[in-house]
Design goal:
The structure holds 3 protein chains of 3 kinds. Chain B is mainly α. Helix content of chain B is 76%, strand content 2%.
């Protein structure tokens, strides 16, 4: 049988990673909920953020988390730019074209990273969060604990934004019924670009957290993109709570899967889960309204 | 016709197929029977076949399927492994590969369409499929490369010391796929698939069982790919996990989109031009910038999607109108 | 089969809920063969939802629907069409990259397997609704609103229905376009023997066209009768005036 302490450790690890995954997926869920667009390149924004964090942290010799002061606003603007240049023109086009452009973005970003940085992972020179926390028999890397805590805090903040501010209400109204929202005087265009900006900014934040315990490589996009899609498929349309719940479930299952089976099967497992989730989800939530 | 093909009408379609057949048959001669170029030509013909097959599910029915390389690799694996381990001729292996690919397509496609997995999620599920196939192959064979038996000139094994015979076989398959595409386009299946691709809800309201027809398209597409997989494997001489290449599947879809969804002439042109361009890029920059062709594809895809969603087909229409005006005006 | 004047479509206690909201509440009605029935009511009355329950887009939570004596409750849309109920759309759903002729051919292919013959039938139907022959080769993205409506109508008619459900077909049309449409609908009823149910907001259009009107409000039937009876029914007046203006 599994040692209870070990099991608790796996559980905690799963929860912490699940929180981080939820943070990454949140941006995607917001954009999808509001605009009905799945940004295939979402995971690669995380990768982009990771590389940017690497560059800034290495150049200024600062902790990766400090870089968010620069990267998050930058990514917000980047999100708006991507929206205006790529997403907005195809909003009225057929779904296949919409998907196609974000796939194009994915291909572009990933191979750009490959071309510039090549395949070796790049890690930041140091981080303040490198010491582990030990509670009895359980050891948790501080970086992951911080990542989990920050993710939870940000999720809560976004939840407040969505429920307590005027902007948030406008976003939710637009997500519900675009035309009705426009008729009520909501500036739908502004909702769109701010949502896209926010979704992108969140990936920069997540990237900074990731860099405290991991390294940047061109394939980060694949992993985090996939995680985000699975989470959004599972519960993405239930607002922040839905994303949080799905992220936690996924994080915990993944943690147990990785420890008990093998790390190599991690991706296989994720993909199969993804397929099953797609099938089992009730029909009504997929496709266009 | 639903959309004007480069050369319109039934009879013209026949003429264009014959013209293409002759042109393709002469290619090895034009290339001076140079091994490298003939190999490249074979790859171009193969990719064009893949894109034409993709056109059925993607161009007509509008489903963004990224698993083309998966189906082809699966068929290739069946044919290749039977050849390598049991000395079974690919003439038997290829139809078996087609059946296996179709079987998998049905197994996955049925629940996918039944549960209404659409658009983005459909695309993602097909991507997941390719990766799952790759991982499963990896779990069984690891990184082992299984080589096809070497023969000087064996029609039984479909193994030769030159590339020309396989090239010609690929040409024949391409022509058949081209013909199939044209036949479907003007048939009830084609009309229904195009309606589904346009607006699934409206199509349902006209009596179309969208699930069933999407499945038909998927099965035809997977069968073609599964069949041609056997030749692919004999061309590259290897069966390995690397065959299950998601990027290739994505590139096929990209070509289908850039060519112009549903336009046979458009996707044909796109496949030939882009694949040749890709080879050029790879040979020039591939060492320094791996994946440069994918970078360019990504850029092209964005540009086409944003500026000219009709792709090459849009250009063809424009030229056709110019020609028509020029001809009548004199 | 169903005799003229008797019920071709029977809706019995159909209820449809969305979360906590009851869109259609124990709705019952009969549609008589070869009649032109108007279905009106203020916004949100549940008319389109009822349509969708009949055509199979939604599955009713309670109740049953019968067509020509056979039950069709919960059947998928394409089967309902096969049984003989066709519909047009409130928001036009054109086949943008297909020619008008091809779009209608899609409809005709339901009952006519040969593409050539189906195309012929499509031509006939397009002429019947008065769509100009010169524009048969135009793409779905290249035609005007009234032309869309005619194509939508032709598409649905090509499937050979016995009952046609029209969802706010007059929306967005100018008066003379509405007259054209009204004439076509009358021809469909008289020459083709097709029964029609018209959901409409444009009063002038539906009142002049229908022999019988059913009024819905908040998911229930509140009145039924001739246009004149219904127009002077106090409950109907209250329903329209008592709710927010359209």
């Amino acid at each position: 049988m599994i040692d209870p302490a070990y099991a608790t450790q796996i559980l905690i690890n799963g929860v912490l990673m699940g929180l981080l995954y939820s943070l990454v997926a949140l941006g995607l869920a917001l954009i999808f909920g509001v605009m009905d667009i799945i940004n295939f390149a979402h995971g690669d924004f995380v990768m982009l953020g990771a590389y940017l964090t690497f560059l800034i942290a290495t150049y200024f010799l600062i902790d990766p988390t400090v870089t968010i002061a620069l990267t998050v606003p930058l990514f917000f603007l980047l999100g708006i730019a991507v929206y205006k240049a790529i997403i907005k023109p195809v909003l009225g086009a057929e779904p296949l074209i919409q998907i196609a452009v974000t796939v194009g973005l994915l291909m572009f970003l990933r191979n750009l990273a490959l071309a510039i940085f090549h395949a070796e992972p790049r890690g930041v020179p140091y981080t303040v969060f490198s010491t582990p926390i030990t509670i009895g028999p359980i050891t948790i890397p501080l970086s992951r604990a911080v990542a989990g805590a920050v993710s939870l805090a940000v999720l809560y903040i976004v939840h407040l934004l969505l429920t307590r501010t005027r902007w948030g209400i406008a976003v939710r109204a637009t997500a519900d019924d675009r035309e009705a929202a426009a008729l009520m005087g909501i500036n739908v265009e502004r909702v769109y670009y701010t949502t896209f900006g926010l979704g992108t900014a969140l990936t920069a934040l997540a990237a900074a957290l990731i860099m405290t315990f991991s390294r940047a490589d061109p394939y980060l996009g694949l992993l985090y993109g996939l995680l985000s899609w699975v989470i959004v498929a599972m519960g993405g349309l239930g607002g922040v709570v839905g994303v949080l719940a799905s992220g936690l479930i996924l994080g915990i299952i993944e943690s147990f899967g990785m420890s008990l089976v093998s790390t190599g099967a991690r991706e296989l497992f994720l993909y199969v889960t993804f397929l099953v989730v797609l099938w089992v989800r009730p029909r009504g939530l997929f496709g266009r309204r | 016709m639903i959309k004007p093909v480069a050369l319109l009408g039934g009879r013209s379609a026949l003429y264009s197929i014959i013209a293409i057949a002759i042109a393709l048959a002469l290619i090895p001669l034009v290339l001076g029977y140079n091994m490298y170029y003939v190999y490249l030509a074979a790859q171009v013909v193969l990719v064009t076949t893949m894109v034409l097959a993709w056109n059925i599910i993607g161009g007509y029915a509008g489903q963004l399927d990224l698993a083309s390389s998966g189906y082809m690799a699966l068929g290739g694996a069946v044919s290749g492994l039977l050849l390598a381990f049991y000395n079974v001729t690919p003439w038997l292996g290829m139809p078996l590969g087609a059946l296996t690919a179709a079987g998998l397509a049905f197994l996955i496609g049925y629940p996918t369409f039944r549960f209404g997995v659409k658009e983005v999620w459909y695309a993602l599920s097909t991507a997941a499929l390719v990766v799952i196939l790759q991982r499963v192959f990896w779990l069984i064979y690891g990184s082992t490369e299984i080589y096809m038996p070497v023969h000087r000139w064996s029609w039984y094994h479909l193994r030769f010391s030159r590339y020309e015979p396989l090239y010609y076989m690929l040409v024949v398959i391409l022509l058949v796929t081209l013909w199939l595409n044209i036949r479907i386009k003007n048939s009830k299946l084609g009309y229904y698939l195009t309606a589904i691709g346009e607006d699934e809800l409206a199509a349902e309201a006209l009596g179309i069982d969208t699930r069933r027809y999407k499945l038909y398209a998927l099965l035809i597409y997977a069968s073609i790919l599964g069949f041609v997989g056997g030749i692919y494997v004999n061309l590259t001489s290897i069966v390995s996990f690397r065959m299950f290449d998601l990027w290739l599947g994505i590139v096929v879809a990209v070509m289908g989109i850039i060519g112009g969804l549903g336009s046979i002439a458009g996707v044909f042109m796109a496949a030939v031009i882009l694949r040749t361009l890709e080879e050029y890029l790879r040979s020039m920059f591939g060492a320094t910038i791996p994946g440069i062709h994918l970078l360019i594809y990504g850029l092209l895809l964005i540009v086409v999607g944003v500026l000219k969603p009709e792709g090459f087909a849009g250009f063809l229409k424009y030229f056709r109108r110019r020609l028509a005006r020029g001809g009548s005006g004199g | 089969m169903v005799a003229v004047g008797s019920a071709i479509l029977s809706v019995r206690n159909v209820t449809k809920r969305f979360g906590g909201l009851v869109a259609v509440n124990r709705m019952s009605m009969d549609v008589r063969s070869n009649e032109m029935l108007g279905l009106i009511g203020p916004n949100g009355a549940g008319k389109t939802t009822l349509f969708n329950c009949i055509t199979g887009v939604y599955r009713p939570d309670e109740g049953r629907v019968f067509f020509e004596g056979r039950e069709i409750t919960g059947l998928p849309p394409h089967v309902v069409v096969r049984r003989g109920i066709a519909r047009t759309w409130q928001k036009v759903r054109p086949f943008k990259k297909m020619t008008v002729l091809d779009a209608v051919t899609v409809g005709a292919l339901l009952k006519i397997p040969s593409v050539e013959s189906a195309k012929e039938r499509a031509r006939e139907v397009l002429e019947f609704v008065g769509f100009p022959k010169e524009k048969f080769a135009r793409l779905g993205s290249e035609i005007t609103l009234i032309e869309h409506k005619l194509v939508d109508l032709a598409r649905a008619l090509a499937t050979g229905p016995k009952l046609l459900l029209l969802d706010e077909v007059a929306a967005g049309l100018r008066p003379h376009e509405m007259d054209t449409l009204a004439k076509v609908l009358l021809r469909i009823r008289d020459e083709l023997g097709v029964t029609m149910v018209i959901v409409e907001h444009v009063m002038r259009f539906v009142m002049n066209l229908s022999e019988r009107i059913i009024v819905m409000h908040e998911g229930v039937k509140i009145a039924e009768g001739t246009p004149k009876e219904v127009a002077s029914d106090p409950r109907v007046i209250e329903a329209y005036l008592g709710t927010k203006p359209v």
